[in-house]
Amino acid sequence: MRRRFIADTWSPQSGHPTHAALTGEQAAHLARVLRAQPGQIFDVVANGFLHRAEVTEVRAASNGEDAEVLFTLHEELAAAAALPIHLLLAVFKFDHFEWAIEKATELGVARLTPLLARRTDKRLALAAPKRTARWRRIALESAKQSRRTDIPDILDPTPLPVAVARESASLRILLSETEQSLTLSAVLNEQRTTVNGQRSLALAIGPEGGWTQEEISLFSAHHWTPVTLGPRILRAETAAIAAIAIASAQLTTDH
Q1: According to the model, what pLDDT value does residue 89 have?
Q2: Using N-to-C axis directions, what is the helix angle for 122-145 and 94-107, rounded to 10°?
Q3: Cβ 146 vs Cβ 105: under 8 Å
Q4: Of 117, 172, 217, 250, which is the most exposed, with the fewest CB atoms less than 10 Å away?
């Protein structure tokens, strides 16, 4: 199995690119560790398309310039698309939150919004914007490790009312501790035509301590459906992975 990389730049910028480049850490690893040479073949993702790619030039870092590896892109290869899932995940302890980003990327979510909810720890909420670049790097590395052909969009940390109001997914699911009977699986089974036709599903998962009643009312006003994952109280990161796995199974078997 060939190694896969996600291009930093490509040309042309729209449509199917024919040339691509790796820069920075990816290029340095390819040049120094893998000792890439012109003519070698790798798998390269550029503009969301997976290609068999031939190294045309390897430029080592020098004089303050980053390393760079240039490719000619050949035939497009078959690849699975991202799941049509937007995960809205309330910010919690950063080490656990970053684990959730990594696993959500591996499972195939298309987008992730870090939510700033009422019960989000205030210190974490203040520090979250400074962590966004790190979270995007985690998503990039996880996408490469899991051989995705794209990188999930990690949006800037967003206050919950703003995120809820602007969500446009056709099916909006709220994991809620107050819901005792309606399960995620049941809702997905009922709405499978809508989900697969519209290709849009949003999942919202709250912070430690759960949602406030005011937040639940806000979700309800914007047509979110509260569901349960079962009788046990799950940590936020566990709930996120369980919900994505359930939704993934529904989407991939019925599509």
Answers
A1: 97
A2: 30
A3: yes
A4: 217
Distance CA 68, CA 50 (A): 19
Please provide the CATH number assigned to the domain covering 4-76.
Answer: 2.40.240.20
Burial grade of 122 (CB within 10 A; 0-12, 13-18, 19 or more): exposed
Contacts of residue 167, Cβ cutoff 8 Å, sequence gap at least 6 = 86, 88, 202, 222
CA 140, 144, 148, 150 torsion-angle sign: positive
pTM for the whole structure: 0.77
Residues of the chain with pLDDT under 70: 81, 192-199, 252-255
Contact 202, 170 (CB under 8 A): no
Residue-wise pLDDT for 103-156, tens only, equals 999 999 999 999 999 999 999 999 999 999 999 999 988 988 888 888 899 999
pLDDT for the residue numbered 178: 82
Looking only at Cα atoms, what is the longest distance across the chain?
Answer: 63
pLDDT in tens, 203-215: 999 998 899 999 9
pLDDT at 231: 83
Tokens coding 218: 């806000």
First to last CA, the chain: 28
The Cβ-side half-sphere exposure at 137, using a 13 Å CA radius, reads 8
The superfamily (CATH) of domain 83-254 is SPOUT methyltransferase, trefoil knot domain (3.40.1280.10)
Dump the DSSP string for 22-70. Answer: EEHHHHHIIIIIS---TT-EEEEEETTEEEEEEEEEEE--BTTBPPEEE
